[in-house]
Model the fold of this input.
Amino acid sequence: MKLRNDRSIDPQVERELQAIEHALAGEQVEPEFAELAALATAVHGDRPQAAPGFVAQLGERVERGFPLAREDAAEPLRRPLPWRRLRGALLPATAVASSIAIVAVGIASSGVLSGGGSDAGPAVSQRNSKVDQTGRLNKTATPPVTGEGVRSTTDVQGAATDARSIAPQVPGRLAERVHDRKVEGDADLTLAVPVDKVEDAADGVVEITDRYRGFVVSSQVSGGDAANAGAMLRLRIPAAHAQQALADLSKLGHVRQRTQSTQDITGGFVSVKQRLADANRERQNLLRQLAQAGTPNETASVRARLRDVNGRIARLRDQLEDLDNRVNFSSFSVAVQADDRAGKADDGKFTPGDALRDAGDILGATVGAALVALAILIPAALLLGLVWFAAAGARRRMRERTLDGDVPLAPPAEQTSSEPSDR
Amino acid sequence: MDRRQSRSKGMEQTEALSLAFSETPQAVFEALYRSSCDDVYAYVAGVLRDRAAAEDVTAAAFERAYRKRASYKPGHGTHRAWLFGIARNAALDELRRRKRVTPSDVEPVDEAATAQIESADTALKRASIRRALGTLTGRERELIALKFYGGLSNAEVAAVTGTTESNAGTFLHRTITKLRKACDETA
Done:
């Protein structure tokens, strides 16, 4: 055997190493390396020998493939599977389970199983109420007098609501506070219906409005193709029935958007009421002054002031009535859009096109779930890999340190030349 | 068997095993065992210097190699280097577990040698070598065991110890030189 020609080794060193190789191979060496060869041969000749019994026993175990101790004994059939047998199936089982989990997450995320319909609107929000200190002075169409007064109704969520509020999810003590306050509510609803159902949907909106004794403030319906067909209706519906009306309106088509909001106008209401009371008191004072007026000038002056106060009282009453209307009637804005897809979903039929669409949704969601899983697994695998490398490196260093920590032995006690080196 | 013939035969078997290791694992492993058992035992005993522990570690090393035989990659070295790597780790783990150096009174006995009638000169030389080996560090003694007891080539020694062949050769030469001086002093 020849050493690889390595320029980094001193030539003399390389020759000596070559001589050792020759000596160990039983070949002749150059005379200058005779002593070295003799040493190599002597060291090799002093190598420990394995006991024949040990070699035979180990050879038998090798031939039998190193059987496990459990397999040697005659044990009953009931015994747990060795970990090694399960280990081979562990990886495929884990892969299958992970795939099933990812597909399940994908199906759930796609929303295919939950179906479409009027409740699948993506934007159903409710803004919190805010205090309006000034109120609005705009006059709206006078609604028909309901004569119902304040009464409690129960919405679909089961929470009690005030007749003057359309906050459907106001629980417990908050509902009591709302009952004492003046809250104005409004809702925006966007529906999608087939092109040929736009007018029917608009008629449905009007019918629902009439059913709940509301009124249509304005409406605009246009026909034609999907790009031009549509309707826009503004409604006023008694606040006591607002939630139910909203639910009924939502069933007219596929809900694209649904937004509800409330606005607390108690401050403005109280302010107007207070000013009205002050104006009435002032009017009473002026009437007494008029009765006591002695001269025509005094009478004319008081009458002039009375005219001002009466005008102010009328305006304040109008404001109060307007605020009452805003509280008693909720504003609705209903937009009807033409959409051919909405019609197919509303038909309740499951066509191959629906199946393809659902399959695409599931596939997209599954891919998304798989990507998310990879985003979690890859860093975890990298971290585990780093930990494994660090552990392997630490183990290697500990082993090497074992050799470094092994100190030379003190020479053994002197022996006579006739005695072999034995224990 | 003549030393030269046994060494050459072992080399031929080694090359044949390297080619066929992945084809018939059981038969090839048995051939590997037959060709390397004595060498592995000698190496382990040289490191541990305890016959009983050497037998246990040798058996454990072969069993571990048997269980991991599918993980052998020819590109990582000869199968002897692979086997000795496993044996080295097992021996070092045992050494670390014991956390002490085995006293010289439990050094393995070369029964084959003592069974022969030795000349006084040979016996003296053997005693001198053993005393000289006792002056080496653990790492130096391990290198001697790999080279002279295990019969590994310099390339295989480098593969087992995780160094380059040139470094292995240089360190071996340094160790031999130190051993030589120790032998001269003890003689």
